[in-house]
Amino acid sequence: MFKKFTIVALAAAFAAASLPALAQGKKDSVVMGMTLEPPGLDPTNAAAAAIAEVTLYNIYETLTKISEDGSVSPLLAESWTASPDLKTYTFKLRKGVKFQNGEPFDSAAVKFSFERNAAANSTNKDKSLFQSFEKVDASDADTVVVALKYSEPNLPFLLGQASASIVEPKSAATNVTQPVGTGPYQLGAWVKGSSITLNKWADYRNAPAIKLSKVTIRFIGDPAAQIAALLSGDVDAFPRVTTRGVAQFKSDPRFTVLVGGSKAKTIVAINEKKKPLDDVRVRRAILAAIDRKAMIDGSVEGYGTPIGSFYTPGSLGYVDTTGVNPYDPEKAKKLLAEAGVTAPLEISLKLPPPPYARQGGEILAAQLAKVGITAKIENVEWAQWLSQVFAPNGPHNYDLTIVSHVEPFDLVKLTEPDYYLGYNNEAFNALYKQIVTTPDEAGRAKLLGDAQRMLATDAVAGFLFQPQWVTVTSKKLKGVWKEVPQFENDFSAWSWE
Length: 497
What we know:
alpha+beta; Dipeptide-binding Protein, domain 3
């Protein structure tokens, strides 16, 4: 009796152990790693790119959709037309779409979403874009007309970003923790500090095309732990992973390594509201103390292209401004002396969790020390960084910080009076107004060059590099992006071969 039971039990155990291997070909779930945990799940009320990484095109959808190559295609809008002066856009909406709470998607929801983003109390990171809308007209249930105060050739792209997600009016107030959208996935569970699970929404309009029934997103900030999680198979994909372990993944046949371009700008942000950082000579001294190549090599293993302004190579009107504030420690010392600064100048350096910031901060502090600036490093968690350093109308309690701005077309940020850099320059504001009211591309490109030169001359920040993002995935996982025009993970396109 005992022997028979043992044999049966062993056979059952063997069969159970074999099931995963037999089921590999039909795998319909994935575990993805992320460096940062989002502070909430409403991309229309907070700036953290981590929110978009979880929610964009998964839980929420937008009128348009940005593809890997940066092109724009229809999503909730079936089509759109623009007036010749690019100041009026008419969107024809997709019919028969519902929100995950059963409410219908229509022009009223679009109007509500855009006007909510523009409201005086809005904390939308692109609030200025929505405030540039003269009027949002929901002329019928399936048509939205957006009239702008100035021409905007990039509007279809901008409306594909997470900040333009269409929310359901009744559920908007609770989207931070109970998100409701029109996308193919719903929130399954959120274990704070650990993971988020998304489950396929059975009533999605194109549910049969969605291959993954469950996505688990694990938050792993430590670079060594990121590498270990991939090597052990605990995670199947890690977009924008640490650059430290790239060589070993390239030589391991189990993995695919994707190295993609971006429109991101990694900078040393300088709080110009603080003395003596309000003196351009002090800011120029900080820039002259920075060896960009050493920063790129040391913080991101060389995966970056030097930049000299808040603008990246490959964008319309790009000019190389890296020579405006070159590495020159002796010049840095002279500039500090001219500004009347007595060495050592003590300043704070607040660093968020990403490896490029923490590793880059150590290098930066060492470089600044050589010219008589003592940077006191303070490592903070992401939520702290957002509230203390970055938040609109926040305390902006920092001297220096390091961060990657991942959104393209965001020069407008530098015109916002309460932007965390504290750069309030009427000459730049007037130049930006010229840029957005110049409809022809050649004229706009010339003005964009002027803007880049002004930002470099004013030493608005320590402009470091345009990062290349590294993504490591299981060899059998398909649909993961290589290029990164914006931070997103479109799980509707992921599948196992």
